[in-house]
Amino acid sequence: MPVSLCGTWDIISNVNFEGYMIALGISPYLRKIALRLKLRKVIEQRGDQYIIKTVSAFRNYTISFRVGQEFVEFTQGLDNRHVKSLVTWEGNKLVCEQIGEKKNRGWSHWVEDDKLHLELHCEGEICKQVFKKNVAE
Ligand code: ECB
């Protein structure tokens, strides 16, 4: 049984977020705003349903899904595309494939040394984010 991803997590490092946003076609103006954000992940599990909230002072973004069950995702407030998403466990990694206009798009989450890791990929770009648990919440 993998370590639980649930909880409130605050970003401590963010590598190549810019490259990932360029791959998604985000405007220079929005990229500049996004790069300054202190992103927070709030991850909840209710039964076999996961809810992942990405929270910031500028915008929030929430998805909910069941592992192994494909769903339509609208990336509202991000790149505003529709993708077909499927989340599965690959070992201790929660892996999402996002099928749509952009090739090789998806992400994976895992916990290592009490940190939440996230790798976001699109086309040839990989963004690596690490979050530490917020114990106050
Ligand atoms: C929601 C806060 C970010 C708002 C940034 C606004 C404009 C920039 C537009 C697009 C940037 C691309 C991605 C933003 C980065 C994080 C948002 C969620 C990334 C994601 O797919 O997270 C997964 C895995 O945790 C769950 O949705």
What does this entry look like structurally?
- It is a single chain.
- 19% of the residues are buried.
- This protein is 11% helix and 53% strand.
- The chain has one domain (7-132): Calycin beta-barrel core domain (Lipocalin), CATH 2.40.128.
- The chain has helices spanning 17-23, 28-35; strands spanning 7-15, 40-46, 49-55, 61-66, 71-74, 82-90, 93-99, 106-112, 115-122, 125-133.
- The chain has a ten-stranded antiparallel sheet.
- The protein has two helices and ten strands.
- With 137 residues, the protein is mainly beta.
- Residues 21, 24, 26, 30, 34, 37, 41, 52, 54, 56, 58-61, 63, 78-79, 107, 118, 120 line the site of ligand ECB.
Summarize the topology.
Blueprint: E1 7-15, H1 17-23, H2 28-35, E2 40-46, E3 49-55, E4 61-66, E5 71-74, E6 82-90, E7 93-99, E8 106-112, E9 115-122, E10 125-133
Antiparallel strand pairs: 1-2, 1-10, 2-3, 3-4, 5-6, 6-7, 7-8, 8-9, 9-10
Ligand ECB is lined by residues 21, 24, 26, 30, 34, 37, 41, 52, 54, 56, 58-61, 63, 78-79, 107, 118, 120.
